[in-house]
Specification:
The protein has about 300 residues and is of the alpha/beta class. The protein is about 40% helix and about 15% strand. The longest helix has 17 residues.
């Protein structure tokens, strides 16, 4: 498989520079995909450096580089610390996560990630396990369906959409993208059709892959996995995941429930590297339209975790 066609890395140089790669260091690419970021990291590593690439999608294995410094981990990144311990790595120098859905997933007509193709409603990153989007649409209660559409898709008419889906599935189970598009037809205006459909598909994808809880689990594990002075580099694509990352960098907690010292100063295990969020240039967006919503945040693990300090 051609990794260039699989996925075009977003904010490539900016994210690699953010890792501040040491030639002999140990690094983790939590979203291996087409291997673009991983190859960039390997190019900056010396002969003693090591890189671990995580990906739960079997399709990504076709892109594994023939490099003895690279170890592929076929797993969801929510198991980051477990697999690093398995490989004898207690702490690492840097972690990169590109949270966006890859071009490969959107362009594969069989996966159900895109409303451009009529296929089965799957949307699983790991096709070996878990419920599909069709399962969610056919088994969720009307209330639960409305809640996930509102929470993950930020759709104001989520209750009406859920009611129509539940009504239609009583006559015929939803199995294909076309089935879903028919259900959504009354809510789809011509001017904002693509934006509306993208929100619905995003909500279903997040639910199917438990993306928000998975992100929380991963972020919390970086507290014990990153060495003091190590870098955490994360690219986000929508406000829900970006909010969690922003809170985590500021407080060490994905929900933003930080601690303060006696004087009211915020205690955090991270120091920001970039004062403002980094976004793609107009030139990059022109080359790769999917980069438009990308945001890059970089933080460095502090030498001492200030949250553990106590004020007498």
């Amino acid at each position: 498989m051609n990794n260039v066609l699989y996925h075009v890395p977003v904010l490539f140089e900016e994210s690699l520079n953010g890792l501040n790669i040491r030639p002999e260091g140990v690094y983790v690419d939590l979203t291996f995909g087409g291997g673009g970021h991983s190859r960039g990291i390997l190019a900056r590593l010396g002969s003693e450096g090591r890189l671990y690439g995580f990906d739960q999608d079997a399709d990504a294995e076709a892109n594994i580089p023939a490099d003895k410094r690279f170890v592929f981990v076929r797993s969801n990144f929510r198991y980051l610390s477990n697999f690093l311990r398995y490989h004898g790595e207690m702490q690492v120098d840097g972690i990169l996560a590109d949270l966006g859905v890859s071009s490969h997933h959107f362009d594969d007509e069989t996966r159900g990630f895109s409303f451009r193709f009529d296929s089965t409603l799957d949307m699983r990153m790991n096709r070996r396990a878990g419920q599909t989007a069709a399962d969610v649409l056919n088994t969720c209660s009307e209330e639960a369906l409305a809640e996930l559409l509102y929470t993950y898709g930020e759709l104001k008419n989520a209750r009406k959409i859920a009611a129509r889906i539940v009504g239609l599935r009583a006559e015929k189970p939803m199995q294909t993208v076309q089935d879903l598009l028919v259900a959504l037809q009354p809510f789809t205006g011509r001017e904002k059709e693509k934006k509306f459909l993208a929100k619905v598909f995003q909500a279903l994808r997040i639910e199917v892959n438990d993306e928000m809880q998975t992100l929380r689990d991963m972020l919390e594990q970086t507290l014990c996995v990153l060495k003091p002075g190590g870098r955490l580099v994360i690219i986000t694509y929508h406000s829900l995941e970006d909010r969690l990352v922003k809170h985590f960098f500021r407080t060490g907690n994905p929900e933003g429930h930080g601690k303060q010292d006696f004087f009211g100063n915020r205690l955090t295990p991270f120091a920001p590297v970039n004062s403002k969020v980094i976004t793609p240039s107009e030139e990059e967006i022109a080359r790769n339209p999917r980069a438009r919503s990308a945001k890059l945040r970089i933080a460095e693990r502090k030498l001492h975790d200030e949250r553990r300090k106590s004020i007498a």
